[in-house]
Amino acid sequence: MTTHEGFLKSGHLPTLVAALLYFDVSFMVWVLLGPLAPFLREQFGLTATEQGLLVAVPLLGGSLFRPVLGMVADRIGGRRTGLIGLGLTVVTLVIGWKGAYAVSHLFALGFLLGIAGASFAVALPLASGWYPPEYQGLAMGIAGAGNSGSLLATLAAPRLAERFGWATTFGLMTVPVMLVFVAFAIMAKDSPRRAPRSTWRDYAAVLREPDTLWFSFLYGLTFGGFVGFTSFLTTFFREQYHVSRVSAGDFTTIVIVAGSFLRPVGGWLSDRIGGYRLLLVVLAAVAACLMWAAALPPLPIVVAVLFVGVGLLGMGNGAVFQLVPQRFANRMGLITGVVGAAGGLGGFFLPSVLGAAKDVTGTYASGLALFAVTFLIGAIALLELGSQWATRWQPRAAKQAGIFCYRGLVRELFGEETA
Questions:
Q1: pLDDT of 131-160, one tens digit each?
Q2: Which of 7, 80, 331, 369 could make a disulfide contact with 294, Cβ separation 3.0–4.6 Å?
Q3: 369-394 b/e with 16+ CB inside 10 Å = b?
C-alpha cells in the first residue's frame, strides 16, 4: 500500500476537508481589517499609531480566545465548537456591516474578529484526532494550509471596498463563511479517539517550564511576524510608497503568498536537517531582509525582499513545530495551544510598533530596523539555547531536532584555549 493510499484509509477525509475550509475562511476574516485599513484611515482620520493598533487588535483577540475555544472543544467536541465559532464569526461580520460608526466601534469589532483567529484551537485538533502518528504531519500540513485565507482577504477585500464600500465588504464576507458553515455541518465529525480534557492547572504546569516560554518567543517571531505583516503590509505599501489602495493589497498578496505555502516546506526541510538548524538560518536571514527593507529601497526591490523574508517566516513556522514534539511529545495538545496563542500575541506587537514608529519618526524604517534587531537577538538566543538543549534533551530528540552546541564547534575549530 502506498503512503497516499494509507493516508486516505487511515482517517476521515471529509473532516479533514471541513477543517481546512473552516480554518481558511476564519483566517480570511481574522486579518480582514488589514487590507481595509487604508479605507478606514481615510474615513475616520486615524493616525498611524491608531491604524497600526487597529489592525493588531484582532491578533490579540485571537490569542485570548484561542484557549477558550480549545477548552470548549475539549468538552463538547470540535464539530459543535466549530459551528459555534463560525456562527459567531458571521455575527461579528454583520456587526461590522451594520454597526460600526465610530473608531471605538472599530476597535471592539477588531477584538471580536479574534474569534475567527481562535479557529486554530478547533480546526487542527479536529483533523488531528482522526489520524495515527505516522500521518499527523501530512494531516496537519493540509489543515494548516488554511492560512492561505489571508490571500483571499488581501486580494478581494480592497477591490470590494473600492466598489461597494468597506462596510458592505464585511457583509459580503458573510457569504463564504455561511457556505463553509453548511459544509462543515455536513462533513465534520468528531473522532472516536478523544484526547484527555485539559484544565487550567495543566496549562499552568506547562507554562512553568522554561522551554515553553522559549518556544512561545520563537513562534511569536515566526508566526507573529507572518500574521503581523499580513495585517500591516497593505498600510505600509499605501502610506510609504503611495500606491493605490487596491495595488497595496495586491503587493501584500504577492509578499504573503510565499509565507502561506512555504510552511510545509519548512516542516519537510526540518525533518531532514533538523528544525533547530533551519530556524537558526531563518531568524538570521529574516533579520537581514528586514534591515534591507528598513533602507526603504525602490518598490520592486522592497517587494522582493519582503517576499523572501515572509517566505522564510512561513518556513520558520514549520521549523518551530518540528522542534516542539521532540521536547513535549506527550503534551502536544497543551503546548500547541500555548505556543499558538503566543504567535498571535507576537503578531499584535508588530503592527502596533510599526504604526507608532511612523508617527514618531515619519517613516516605517525605524520600526523595520527595530524588528530586524529583534530577529537577530532571537537568532543569538537560539544559538545559546542549543548549547543548553544539547545536554538537557534526550539524545535522540536532540539529534532529530538538529541541535548542536556552538561552544563545542568553537573548541574543535580553534582549540580549547580560544573557546
A1: 776 566 567 667 777 778 888 999 999 999
A2: 369
A3: bebbebbbebbeebbebbeebbeebe
